[in-house]
Design brief:
- 0% of the residues lie in helices and 35% in strands.
- The protein starts with a strand and ends in a 9-residue tail after the last strand.
- It has one domain.
- The model has no long low-confidence stretch (mean pLDDT 93).
- It has 91 residues and is an all-beta fold.
- A six-stranded parallel β-barrel has the order 1-4-3-6-2-5.
């Protein structure tokens, strides 16, 4: 977890996500990988094109106030982690 499926339709998403450029605004620092075997915990995300394989369906919003979760993307896997642990059950 989490293996995610991206949708363009907000109403069918389990989770609405906003990506911020400001690290201090994020609830979660996310590392994205192509390997589903690396995506074993909340801060490491892998995407699938097959909806039925996904753990969650996500929609990326353009506005932070529309999002359930605000994330900051990192290129360093060990840097990934929760900033706001109160939301850790969302992923």
């Amino acid at each position: 977890m989490p293996k995610l499926f991206k949708t363009d339709i907000a109403s069918e998403a389990d989770l609405k996500v906003f990506v911020t450029d400001i690290r201090s605004e994020a609830d979660l620092i996310v590392y994205e990988t192509m390997s589903q075997w690396e995506a074993t915990e909340g801060p490491v995300w892998c995407y699938t094109d097959i909806r039925s394989e996904a753990d969650k369906i996500v929609h990326f919003t353009d506005a932070q106030w529309d999002a359930d979760l605000t994330v900051y993307k990192t290129d360093i896997q060990s840097d990934a982690g929760w900033v706001n642990s109160a939301k850790s059950d969302m992923v």
